[in-house]
Amino acid sequence: MATTVIGARETRPARFWAATNGKKVVMAITGAILFLFVIGHMLGNLQVFEGPDKLNAYGRFLRIVPEILWTVRIVLLASVILHIWAAVQLAARKIQARPVGYAKHENVVSDYASRTMYWSGPILLAFVIFHLLHLTAGVIHPGGEFVEGDVYHNVVAGFQVWYVSAWYIFSMILLGFHIRHGAWSMFQSVGINHPRYTPILKKAAAVLAVVIVLGYISIPISVLLGLVK
Amino acid sequence: MRVRLKIWRQKSPNTRGQFVSYPVDNVNPDMSMLECLDVLNEQLTENGEEPVAFEHDCREGICGSCGFMINGIAHGPLPATTVCQLTMRHFKDGEELLLEPWRARAFPLIKDLIVDRRAFDRIIASGGYISVSTGSAPDGNTLPVPKEAADRAMDAAACIGCGACVAACPNASSSLFTGAKIAHLGTLPQGKPEKDRRAIRMVTQMNLEGFGGCTNIGECTGVCPKEIPLEVIAAMNRDYLRGNWHARDNVVTTIRPFTEWSYGSKLQIDEQSQS
Ligand code: HEM
Ligand code: SF4
Ligand code: FES
Predict the structure, then answer these.
(1) B17 near B9, Cβ under 8 Å?
(2) Which residue among A41, B118, B136, B157 is the one 20 to 30 A from B105 at the CA level?
């Protein structure tokens, strides 16, 4: 064996990003940002149960300072792009790393959520795009007119269309799976693992995933049942 | 007892392989899986057929030579055992067992159930060492090692380099192996001087060899005959992050292969050293 000096001229960030471990650190940090957003967004949305005035006021509140709104949007967009970019490259590596597959392969210890991150992720992306066109831009809005600024109306009219609600509920369940694995995995990716705390973290991730799914899907379900109108 | 072994037969790296089914009668339940293959190979030799090639050495679970998939599970269904320790009594009489080699680009197949695992050797060579002073042996207790660090290092050092973690991983990642080596040396005071460089080099080497990236699925620990915990992967990630943060230059040294078989590696065999 001989040694080779590589990357002498490569910059450190480039090398960090080139390594699978570096990409996972980026995914963990961007995933954490998206995760915090998902929690905050859910808490904001739940104000739909407090009536139109409250929710519309909240919608206006978010838009008081456009600079803040756009800073948040840009951070989220950058996170999504980096997160997906890393995901695509890792997925490509995964395919290349095993050119000849197994005739039979059993999973012994891993959970479903962890093995399906490459499925739940892209479906979430499709959902996010639809969701922005549906309730932020109002370009796609079956089941009634989109009224700029009347968040409450848009949500209720939007979710009264059963297939929109069904797609939303389905996507939120996948978000739950994504978070079930991601919320503890991001700690592992930046090097935090402890035999005493990691099992607690995994349980907390599962509980949080259930809470987030229930929080989000309570809205379309209430609209469909006529509890929110 | 009797079993039917359905085994992947492939003559050489570049020929096509296929499963061939062999009945093996009069299997002693106390035989190991490898001894069962020995019995089959005797039969095959007597019939003038080519025996099944499989790797083995110690036959007591400490060398890491043996290993293949049995019915889709690396080292077979029994946890914390290698195939040489796995006795036939764990299978049912008349059962059909599917024996398949490890499948990963970084582990190119050599023959039948044997794959080239030298990518692991190169990962170790790239950073799995410590500096020691030459000269007379140091005094016994000059370097205090905390009990907990010694235990953790010992647990990680139990890795025998069998490759089951790569084989079981849906990403074909070698993170458990590399993590075990990094944690083994990095938790001890003797391993501290190279801690940062070690992580960067071993991770770089691992990536060059064409293994996949870890997504913390955890199948590796489930099949690991030495039950290396997922914690070592976090240790690798931590040291890698730390190393990148501390590093003062951008030079990374890696090991390149110079013999055939290693076509899984992205390193060109006849590549000239550059600096
Ligand atoms: C609401 C949006 C999202 C949130 C909250 C989120 C959160 C996370 C978190 C916390 C992780 C764990 C990171 C780590 O272990 O280092 C992760 C991993 C991952 N995400 Fe996302 N993500 C989101 C959207 C997406 C999208 C749109 C995609 C796909 C295109 C995606 C694909 C993946 C993949 C493939 C992984 C890697 C699996 C792993 O590392 O275990 N995610 N995500
Ligand atoms: S970590 Fe376990 S499965 Fe992987 S090479 Fe070492 S002993 Fe084998
Ligand atoms: S032959 Fe040595 S571990 Fe199995």
Answers:
(1) yes
(2) B157
